Amino acid sequence: MLLRLWPEKTKVSFMSLRFVALVVSVTALLASAAFLSMRGLNLGIDFAGGAVIEIEEPADISAQDIRDVVEPLIVGEVQVNSARGTGPDAPDIAVVRFKPQPPVGDETPDDAQNRAGDEVSAALRELIGPERFQIRSEASVGPKVSGELFRSGIIALSVALGLMMIYISFRFQWQYALGAVAALFHDVILTMGMFALTGFEFNLATIAALLTIVGYSMNDTVIVFDRVREEARKYKKLELSKVVDLAINATMSRTLLTSGTTLLALTSIFLFGGPVLRGMSFALIFGVIVGTYSSIFVASAVVLLLGIDRGDKPKREVEGFQGVG
Amino acid sequence: MLNFPIWKVGLIVVVLLWGMILAVPNLFSDGFLGIEPKEVSDPTNQAAVAAYEQQLQEAEDSWWFLPAGKLNLGLDLQGGVYLLMEIDPAEIAANRLETVQADIRTALNRNPLVEREPPVQTDDRLTIEIKNPEEDMDEAIRRLNRINPTIGTTQTELFRVQQTGDQFIQLTVPANARTALATDAQSKMMEIIRRRIDPDGVAEISITPQGDNRIILEAPGEADPKRIKDILGQAGRLTFNMANLDPSAIRAAVVSGRPSPRELLVDSMEAGQILINRIPELTGADIATANRCFDEANFPAVCFRLNSSAATKFYNLTRNNVGRNFAIVLDGVSMSSPSIRTPIPGGSVIIEGRFTIEEAEDLAAIIEAGELPARLNFLDERTVGPTLGAESIAAGSRASLIGLALVGVFMVLAYGLIGGFAVGSLLSNIVLIIGALSGFGATLTLPGIAGIILTIGMAVDANVIVFERIREEQANGRSPATAIQAGYERALSAILDANITTFIAASILYLVGSGPVKGFAVTLAIGILTSVFTAFVVTRWFTVLYLRTMRPKRLAM
């Protein structure tokens, strides 16, 4: 007997749950907005500027020792975190972070950032000893670029949303496009809210993750819409909410299987892909779950609310399939 | 129903073989074919490194029929330094305007004398006062327009001449000239940067322009961003000036803070401050070659040779000034101020300064590469050490294999034999992705690996959509062959729409993203194309082969 995530023939009335879903979604959106405005995003240095220096931390040096040499050099807060090295005899890791530095004299803000980074590296090298000093990674982003990166990230998201909306209006009808975009905004806002809640670092890789979520959620929505369009043509007299239910039931097995395999792959990245990919894979896992939910309860519900134009002549590429089965 | 035209089979075989051929060269790396890994041998032992490289080359040569392209690993995987630098267009304009000041004075001071005071430059704006505006203004403007230089290879003129008030002329650098200056400076600076960082031209560094006034430097394998920034942070303006080491004259200048108009007070690497002539005798442009050498006490030093006309000039200078001192001044600091004992022919000069070998090498590279036309601002700097890079590769491969295994097991559990076909096409998908990345010379980054894993999860989607349709059609009482036919036909529009929208997201990401994120977009986009191909063509082919040979009454799924 093969694995079934969803029974073969079902008649679950998803659309009768749409008002429950509305309450759930609105609550979640409000909660996200609240987290975003109260806690804010933990912006990584890509967007906030500043520096992160990750070094190997020998056993005889503590985080406090590092803080003691770095703090006098830096204006504002210095964060020093120690972490276990990966592997049996790998040395521990210390991560030093500080915010963009104010310029002194006629320095530019970018110069100030650079000077601080160099001074901290030099001080750490001296503390640990040149022969044992190992930089694992170092990043220093000045205020100019961090602002640009943030803007280009937002532009990328908006342009992607816009283009997809145009594509969907072109392939389906505008009601579908609005439904799909409502679902995408829903997913993006909830994922950002989740980042505000958990305090995971929000950086360029997270923007990449958000765009992928947008792509995935859109993918999922299109599969349902394609089926709605098909069933609407097959059963011209049937109430729209019944048609949408038919489509969702018919695609549910696929939805769960694809989400399942994607989540398996993502969980593998989250657990085994190392610390660098953890934030990105976390965003993707959350986004895939939310995206699956939103295709059904946001995108389809919006289409149901707006209604679709069913008097249209069937489009050519679907016409050939009419009456089959 | 089951006919699968021969050209389609041919296409599948050709595409898969092409993917494999492009992917295979990635296996030629350290530790492959029984060759000792590079790290084991001492990198300073040049004979061992050369022997190793030859061995690797021979191994590759014996597989000559394979393409040479391999996956480029991004800096986040192989370790290295990334630097984003910017040149300030206003500063370039100001520096360039400064260089034409001498020409302006010559032009204006020719008979009849039309200038009252030396021109005053504030930032990139030059103001000239004309003594007798009624008579001379038009002539002055005409002369200035005549000496207006064009920028680089363009026809753009450097400045705009405008009369302001009754007796002033203002020279400004218009926006189009600034852009031309920045583009010109950008390409010059990229060349200077390359010669400074990599004087021997052996390192695999990449220097690329971004916009009109930014430069990206990527140096794989480099672990010390400080050294690169030090080398690039210096303007590299080298001059030879006559020097005055008389202690009482120096003390007087230090106390008053105002040396005589002909002299300048500069810091000296040897001791305190010295006085030098304001006008240099020779400049960096007169130097032909510079390299690291050793002085008589066997300390590392910098030796350089002047070009032939400068060598003659230098010989005359030293002959006329025996007993006096001259100073070699770099960016306003005297590196060395030897006294001239005998005239020096041949144009060979040495700077001694108790350098380390590395310092002497870097200094030689800076001197030989020449002066930067403007200062570089470092905007974004990222370094990944070799340890973290290696760990990321290990983590990425581990996550890929585990992800692939999980998805494979899941597909077989869900769809049985046909699920197995999908796994087969998933494997060919991965080969195609790696082949395409190698063929395009794309760069694989850690987010790129995440993109491949995500594609593994999402690639089965097209298969799943089709399989679900086949299940439905079979449940409606169709035979396996017609069910498969209908399943593929009806799933097509959904799969295309779904993948085109994801492809839009990946393209935007590619256009807007940078570095590692771009790598993610590339693997995602390639993954979408290959997964549609493998699901629609490869899995289908497997399924049709199975139907033809086994002729099952019913598909178990």
Q: What would your notes on this structure say?
A:
Chain A is of the alpha+beta class and 325 residues long. Chain A has 2 domains: 14-44 and 145-319, Multidrug efflux transporter AcrB transmembrane fold; 50-141, Alpha-Beta Plaits, CATH 3.30.70.2040. Chain A has helices at 18-38, 45-48, 63-70, 109-128, 143-171, 174-198, 204-234, 240-272, 278-306, 316-319; strands at residues 42-43, 50-57, 78-83, 92-98, 135-141, 201-202. In chain A, strand 3 and strand 4 form a beta hairpin. Chain A is elongated, with a radius of gyration of 25 Å. The model of chain A is unreliable at 313-325 (pLDDT under 50). By secondary structure, chain B is an alpha+beta fold. Chain B folds into 3 domains: 6-23 and 385-550, Up-down Bundle (Multidrug efflux transporter AcrB transmembrane fold); 90-178, Alpha-Beta Plaits; 234-380, Gyrase A, domain 2, CATH 3.30.1360. Chain B is 53% helix and 18% strand. Chain B contains 15 helices and 19 strands. In chain B, strands 9-11-10-16-15 form a 5-stranded mixed barrel. In chain B, strand 15 (325-330) and strand 16 form a beta hairpin. In chain B, helix 7 (175-197) runs antiparallel to helix 11 (357-369) and helix 12 (386-440) packs across helix 15 (515-550). The two termini of chain B are 20 Å apart. At the A-B interface, helix 4, strand 5, helix 5, helix 7 and helix 8 of A face helix 8, strand 18, helix 12, helix 13 and helix 14 of B.
Largest sheet descriptor of chain B:
5 strands, mixed, barrel
Order of helices and strands of chain A: HEHEHEEHEHHEHHHH
Count the domains of chain B: 3
Work out the helicity level of chain B.
Answer: 40-55%
State the assembly state of the protein chains: heterodimer
Report mean pLDDT of chain A, rounded to a whole number: 84
Structural class of chain A: alpha+beta
Query: What is the tally of helical segments of chain B?
Result: 15
Work out the helicity level of chain A: 55-70%
Number of domains of chain A: 2
How far apart are the termini of chain A? 26 Å
Strand order of the largest sheet of chain B: 9-11-10-16-15
Structural class of chain B: alpha+beta
Reported by name, the CATH topology of the largest domain in chain B is Multidrug efflux transporter AcrB transmembrane fold
Radius of gyration of chain B: 34 Å
What is the approximate shape of chain B? elongated
Instruction: Average the pLDDT over all residues of chain B and give the rounded result.
Output: 82
CATH homologous superfamily designation of the largest domain in chain A: Multidrug efflux transporter AcrB transmembrane domain
